[in-house]
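Lab manual, section 2.4: Encoding a predicted structure.

Procedure: take the sequence of the chain (812 residues), apply the prediction step described in section 2.3, and record the output as C-alpha cells. A sample record is shown.
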Amino acid sequence: MKTINMSRIAVAIATGLALQSGVAFAQEQTEEGAKTNASQALDKITVTARKVTENLQEVPVSVTSFNGDALERRQITGSDDIGKITPNLQFTNNAPLAGNNNSSVIFVRGVGQISPRANTDPGVGLYIDDVYIGQSVGGNMELRDIESVQVLRGPQGTLFGRNTIGGAVLINTQAPGDELGGKVRFGIGEDSLIEAFGAIDIPISDDLLTRFTAGTKKQDGYVKRLYDGLDLGDTNNTTFSAKIYYDPNEKFTAKLLYDYTDADENGSALVFAGYNNNNDVTNTSHDAGWFGASQSVIAGCPDAWIAYPGPPGRPVTTAEGSTLDVSGLLTSGGGPRGYTGENNDPRCVNSQWNAGPFANNGTAEMGSSMTNWGASLNLEYAFTDEFTAKSITSYRNLEWVGRRDADNTPFTILHTDFDSSGDQFSQEFQFNYVTDNLTAVAGIYYYEEEVTDILTVQVGDKAAGYSCGEGTDGCHLDSDNNITQNESFAYYTQVTYDITDQLSAAVGIRRTEETKGSIPDQFDYANPEAKYLEVKLYEADFSATTMSFNLSYQMSRDTMFYGSFSEGFKGGGWNSTFNFALTESDLEAGHKFDQEEVETIEVGFKSDITDNFRLNGAIFSSDYTDLQFTYRVFIAPWFFNAGKASIDGAELEFTWVPHDDWVIEGGFGYLDSSVDEAVEIEVPGRPVNTGVAEGNQLPFAPEFQGNVGIGYYAELDDYLVMPRIDVSFSDKVFFDASNTALIAQQDSYTTVDMSVSVQPFDEVWKLTVGVNNATDEVYKVSGNSSLGSGSGYAEAAYARPRVVFANFAYEF
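Recorded output:
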C-alpha cells in the first residue's frame, strides 16, 4: 500500500476551508421542549456504526448522521438529496442506464457502482432498518418517516460485509410511540407538486405498540418530449408501512416491519448529450456512430453515406436521390463505416436533435414503474446485562419497468425496455458482549436473491427492410434476458478493548463466500431459436477474508484521535448483455469478471473544542484493485477487471453555535482519485471501445465538495420562527471512468436551498415555506456514453430546476 500524501491533503484541506467556509460532520439534532433552539445542535448523538449503540464523538469511524428533524429542517426529502449535506458522498439517480426514476447510484470516497443490473453488485451498501437492499433500483426513495440516516465512509468489510467496499448508508425509520397519536403533513409547490403523509401510533397495550404510515407524492416532470408533449422526470408514488413492536419484559424485544412502495411515472428525464458522427465526407476509417449514418440513408438524408460490414475497399452507399459525390470513396477497413453531415434536414442524424437540458426529441415508448415491498422480523434477547443475541430475518420483492430512448432522436438507434422482477432473503444472527472495557460483536449472515431481467433492445444496425417494431426500419430486436441467482454466506467478529482509560484497540475479521449464477436467454427475435450462448446455469464462486484494525486515543474528555486500517471486497459475476452469437474465445475473454478490492488507511479526530463548537475530521488513502470497468464490445457493455486506482482524501465536519439563537453547520470533502493502471482489453475479432486511461479521475468523485447551513431561531410572541439557508458546492464530476466530456458536469456548481418555518412552542403544528435550488442552477446529475461504439449516442440527466414549495404539518 502506498503512503498517504499528508502534505498534499493538508494543503487541500486548508485551501478548501478558506474557500468553502467549512464543511459537514456527523451531526444529529433534536427539537424537544417548548424552547427549541440552536444550542441543541451539540446534543449527544448516538450511532450504530459498529452494530452497538455508541456516542458519535467516541466512535473511531468516519460517519455522518442526521435525525429526521434535521433532514426535514434542511429540506432533505429524498435519499438522492443526502449527498448535498454529506462530504464525499454522491447519491443520485441512475436513469441513463435503467430508464427508471427509482434507480440509484451511490458512491462514497470515489467507490461505488454504476450499472443497475442484478449481475453486478452495488459498491456502497444500503440498509433500511438493518436489512441490506440488494438492488440499486428502489434505492432512490422518499424519506418520509425517518428516525436517522447514517453514512459510514470507507470499507465496512468486517461488520457489514457484503458490497460495502466504499461504505454504507444506514436508514432507520421511526419506531412506534407508546401513546395514541400521530402526524399529518401536506405540501404543495411548483410543477403541480402535491404531497401528503400521515403516521399514527396505536398502542395495543404497554407491551404491544404499533405504527402505521401512508404517503403519496405527485409532481409534473421537468423535461418535455417535443414529439408528443410527454413530461419526463415526473413523480407519482405511494408508500405504506406498518410496524409492530412487542416488548413483554426487559430481556426480550420483537419487531415486525412491513413496507410497500408503488411508483408509476412517464419516464426518466433524459436528454440528448451528443452523437459521434463522422462529419468528414472523405473519411472512410471512422467506425463509430455508423448506426446514425445507416438510419440517415434509410430516411433519405441527402448528406450521408453508409458502408455495411464487408471486406476493405468496398464502395459506400447514399440515399436514393442524393447528390452527394462519393465517387471513388472506398472503405479502409472491414467493419461498417458511415458519414452524416451537420445540417437541419430532419432526415439526418446529427446534433440538430440537441434540444437542451429540459427537452428531448425522442419518439420511442417511455415508462418508469416500480412495486417494491418487504417484511422483516427482528428478535432480540438479553441473556445477561452483558450478553445479547439478535436475529434479523428479511424478505423483499422488487418489480420494475424502465423504458428509454437512449439516443433521444426520432430515429431507431438504440432503445431499451427493462422488465425486471426478483426477490431476496436474508438472515443474520448477531451476538454482542459488552462490559466496561470490552465490546465484542460476532455474527453469521446469509443472503440469497433471484432476479429475472427481461431486457429487449431495438438496435439500429441493419439495412432497409429490417424492422424491429411498428414504424421502424433498418433495425433488429435483441433479447438480453438473464436470470441472476446469487448466494452469500459470511461469519464475522470484532473485538474492542480499552487498554487504558484513554487507549482502545479494535480488531475485526470477516469471511465471505459467494456463489454467483447466471442463466442467459439471449437471441435475435428474427431467429429466437438461435441463442447467442447456451441457455444454462453458469456459476462461479468468490470469497474473501477482510480485516480491520483500529487504535483510538482519548486525549481529553472532549477530544479523541484514531487510526485505522480496513479492507473491503465486491464480488464478481457474469456479463449478461450480448448482441451477437458468442464463440469460445468470446466466453474465455469476457463472460466472467472477478471481484474487486479496496484497502484503506485512515487517521482522524473528533473534538468538542468548546461548549459551542464541534469539529470532526479524517484523512485517508485507499488502494483500489481489480476495478470492474465497463468496456463496450460492439455496442454491449461488458465488465472487465481492467484497472487499479488510488484515492487520497479528507473530510472535515463542524457545528458551531455562536449564540443560543444561531447554528452554523457544514461539511467539506476532498478527493484526489486517479486510475493508476488501465489494462488493454482484447476480445479476438471484436471491436472493443473504451476511453479508460491512466490518469483518469474516477466517476462520481469530484475533487472538492462542501456544504454550509445557517439557521436562526427567533421567538415572536408565542411562536418560534426559524429561517434557514443551505448552500452546497461541488467541483466538476465525471460519470464514467472514461471521463467522457459530453456527459460530464464540466463546471463546478453551487445550489442554494432556503426556507422559513413557523411553529408554536407546543409544536402542535408547523408551517414551512421554501425554495429548492433558489438560484435555478443548471447542472447534470448523471450520464451515459456509447460514443465510441457503432451506436454512437450519449445521454444525460439534469437536476430539476428551482421549485418553490409550502408544507403544513400537524401533530396529534
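Check your result against the sample. Residues 243 and 257 are 5 Å apart (CA to CA).
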